[in-house]
Specification:
The protein has helices at 33-43, 58-71, 83-97, 122-131, 156-165, 182-193, 223-256, and strands at residues 47-51, 75-80, 102-105, 110-111, 117-121, 139-144, 171-176, 197-201, 213-214, 220-221. With 257 residues, the protein is of the alpha/beta class. Helix 1 (33-43) packs parallel to helix 2 and helix 4 runs parallel beside helix 5. InterPro entries: DEAD/DEAH_box_helicase_dom (IPR011545), Helicase_ATP-bd (IPR014001), P-loop_NTPase (IPR027417), RNA-DNA_Helicase (IPR050699).
């Protein structure tokens, strides 16, 4: 029988989640170059596309814009691709701007739908553009989170129709992961919207991306440990398969006698 050797992976356990309260630093937050450029373009009245890796601070751009919009007494719509993310943003914005200023509209429920800041799925916003355009009269901006869904073969039409049929007075902030055709998307938007679309890109990943593997027992493995784990499991499967074949052959021989 194959004996499974010990590896350093057995000593590495997945860290437990910390539930302690996060204390934010008192020092002012310094914006990155692409954040400053995006916010400046938005405040100058442009439609803006921001393409940056996950974890680089795209949401902060939206928060700064929303802060300006609400201070000016105007309204905004924040769209997301899924209900769970809409629910999360509703809670986040409620803590940030006050629950009385934030509403949530999904296919399941409607909360404070007269609030100046409304969070909804992209499909809901698309439907509003068709059925209730008058409700958006005092809404100055729509923010599309995860705008790379525009390339999705199944759901991309919701983003396309939302961009095409959003009232002309509304400006757009699109937040996207890094995509190769961002310039093509901006050119298309400029054509269908009849306006200048600014593209702000950031290639640098602020938080380094590390790849790990989680073994069935819960151990966190690096690449070398994962390869060892896979090789050992393959060896065990081969041994079991050969053992099973030997047992089947022995059983047939007994029946022959």
């Amino acid at each position: 029988m194959v004996q499974k050797k010990e590896t350093g992976a057995r000593r590495k356990r997945r860290p437990r989640r910390c539930r302690s309260k996060i204390v934010l630093p008192a020092v002012p937050l310094k914006l990155d170059r692409f954040q400053e450029e995006a916010i400046a373009a938005l405040l100058d009245g442009y439609t803006v596309l921001v393409a940056a890796p996950t974890g680089t601070g795209k949401t902060l751009i939206a928060e700064k814009l929303l802060e300006h919009i609400l201070a000016a007494g105007k309204g905004a719509v924040y769209t997301s691709p899924i209900k769970a993310l809409s629910n999360q943003k509703y809670r986040d914005f409620g803590r940030l701007f006050g629950p009385e200023r934030v509403g949530l509209i999904t296919g399941d429920l409607s909360i404070n739908e007269r609030a100046p800041l409304l969070v909804m799925t992209t499909e809901i916003f698309r439907n509003w553009c068709f059925a209730n355009p008058g409700e958006l009269e005092h809404t100055s901006h729509v923010i599309f989170d995860e705008m790379h869904y525009l390339d999705d073969p199944d759901r991309g039409t919701a983003w396309e129709e939302s961009i095409i049929f959003a009232p002309p007075h509304m400006k757009i902030l699109g937040l996207s992961a890094t995509v190769p055709n961002i310039q093509e998307i901006s050119s298309w938007m400029a054509e269908v919207r009849g306006e200048v679309v600014k593209v702000i890109e950031e290639r640098c990943r602020a938080v380094p991306l590390e790849i790990s593997w989680i073994a069935p027992g819960g151990d966190v493995l690096d690449e070398e440990e994962a390869r060892e784990e896979i090789a050992e499991r393959q060896e065990i499967r081969r041994w079991r398969r050969h053992r099973w074949n030997d047992m089947m052959v022995a059983g047939r021989e007994e029946l022959d006698y």
